Amino acid sequence: MSFNSVPAGAQQQPTPFELHIDEKKLQDFKTLLKLSPVAKETYENLQDDGSHGRFGVSRKWIVDTKKYWEQKYDWRKEETHINSFPNFKTNITDDDGGVFDVHFAALFSSNPSAIPIAFFHGWPGSFLEFLPLLDILRKKYTPETLPYHIIVPSLPGFTLSSDPPLTRDWKVADTSRIMHKLLLSLGFGPTGYLVQGGDIGSLVSRVIAATYDECKGMHLNFMLIKDIETKSSPDDVISEAEKKGQERLKQFMTVGRAYADEHGTKPSTIGLVLSSSPVAQLAWIGEKFLAWSDPSTTPSLDTILADITLYWLTECFPTSIYTYREAKKLLYVDKPIGYSYFPYELAPVPKAWAEKTGKMVFFKAHEKGGHFAALERPEELFADVEAFVKVAWK
């Protein structure tokens, strides 16, 4: 397999990994899916604009998607696609001696000057978010010509990496520390590295960039942080597109963040509820893909189902929502930052606010794309990352 040669300076050798879900577990999932009921018709769930309505995901979308999931969706095909990329697992020892089994996909370059870039996913995403981007790069470059080392980890608590400990609370800073240690283990301490993220991945990126000297900068496509609006001032220049985005932000804060309140205040309850039925996870997560994407670039049904199926088969939902009960501090990043603005982001933050959170050296506003930029607009997102690298990497 190309792009799988770990850099010579790695402090420890990760183990090559192939994903293969046990057949019995897969069949149990299919049985549960078949037997999972769909709620009866109500006024609210009959409101439908083709995918979701003003009261949430529609019953019709659930019925149609459940049927497709049962009869046509092929998980083994998705496994084959995942395994066509270099995947690894490695043990990362935390400061308290705890050991984390961390999964990551990667494209490693044989160019000694290759720039390491880590891409961090969010919720309800996973490392699968970045497979389209990896596919573009492996078609464009060879291991000898690839100018970057691309590392795409599964965050602790998500899909193929270890869960947070059962004996104490877990914070974004804890995840950031494990991700930093992962990058050091791959030998990127002396050269340094860059980070990129959206959603929770943007929070992890910001903590890493603000905390660790080895991180030389960050690129984000999501800037929402607690009290971000305090960065506004009457002198800010706000474009017409950004004004529309602010209306979208207000709408999200009014009618779109109920899920986050539930994650943050009653994670035990929602974790138990959504682990009871594949259809429950389909409704909860499927709604987010539909409502948070640009209608013109919504990920395909197979893409959405790949993410939800992976969540179900790895039983990760209850351990993937720990970040929601934490007030995220606005950390200033005294390093180069880049920001890609996508209009259908669920909470698009104006450039004038974002540039007050760090040394902004790159900004681009796009006309299409939403919250899942790496899935919706992978070519555009990576073009932005490359442009950012040219001005940020010294």
Q: Could you describe the 3D structure shown?
A:
The protein is of the alpha/beta class and 394 residues long. The protein has one domain (15-392): Rossmann fold. The chain is 40% helix and 16% strand. The protein contains 14 helices and eleven strands. It has helices at residues 23-35, 59-71, 75-83, 131-140, 172-185, 200-211, 240-256, 258-265, 267-274, 278-292, 301-314, 351-354, 373-376, 378-392; strands at 15-16, 52-53, 56-57, 87-93, 99-107, 115-120, 148-153, 193-197, 215-220, 333-341, 358-365. It has a nine-stranded mixed β-sheet with strand order 1-4-5-7-6-8-9-10-11. A two-stranded antiparallel ribbon has the order 2-3. The chain is globular.
Using brief descriptors, characterize the structure shown.
alpha/beta, 9-stranded mixed β-sheet, Rossmann fold, 394 residues
CATH topology: Rossmann fold
Mean pLDDT: 95
Cα separation of the termini:
31 Å
Contiguous uncertain segments of 5+ residues: none
InterPro entries: AB_hydrolase_fold, Epox_hydrolase-like, Epoxide_hydro_N, Epoxide_hydrolase
GO molecular function, one term: epoxide hydrolase activity
Organism: Cucurbitaria berberidis CBS 394.84
Keywords: Hydrolase
Brief digest:
This protein is of the alpha/beta class.
Explain the layout of strands and helices.
Elements: E1 15-16, H1 23-35, E2 52-53, E3 56-57, H2 59-71, H3 75-83, E4 87-93, E5 99-107, E6 115-120, H4 131-140, E7 148-153, H5 172-185, E8 193-197, H6 200-211, E9 215-220, H7 240-256, H8 258-265, H9 267-274, H10 278-292, H11 301-314, E10 333-341, H12 351-354, E11 358-365, H13 373-376, H14 378-392
Parallel strand pairs: 6-7, 6-8, 8-9, 9-10, 10-11
Antiparallel strand pairs: 1-4, 2-3, 4-5, 5-7
